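Task card 7
Instruction: Convert sequence to structure tokens.
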Amino acid sequence: MSFQSELEAICAEVPGCRTAVVMSLDGISVATHVQDAGDLDTEALLVELIGPLNQAIQVTQLVSAGSLSTFEVSTSEVTLLIRVLSEEYIIALVLAPDAIPGQGRFAIRAHSAALRAELTY
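Output:
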């Protein structure tokens, strides 16, 4: 499967999923699937959160807490779920406020192996 088909499948599996993105930790988008972004500039949000995410990755390693696997930010308008796919890439889901984050976490975990396989091509 391709990035696009994986992202589409994830969005189909998670009610309330607005957007799914594979992005580098440099802030460069690799693939995006948008269900309903509304007024939110998802790419800008992710680019701005890459810095704090990179800091969280470094801190967990520095204090011997292991490798960061997931990162979640919830606001009144969206929940952003981020899963680290490799040292260079992440997948992010933007969920509606009424979505169930656990379903999103399960879906991105279930699709992580296929997404990692796409990264190796």
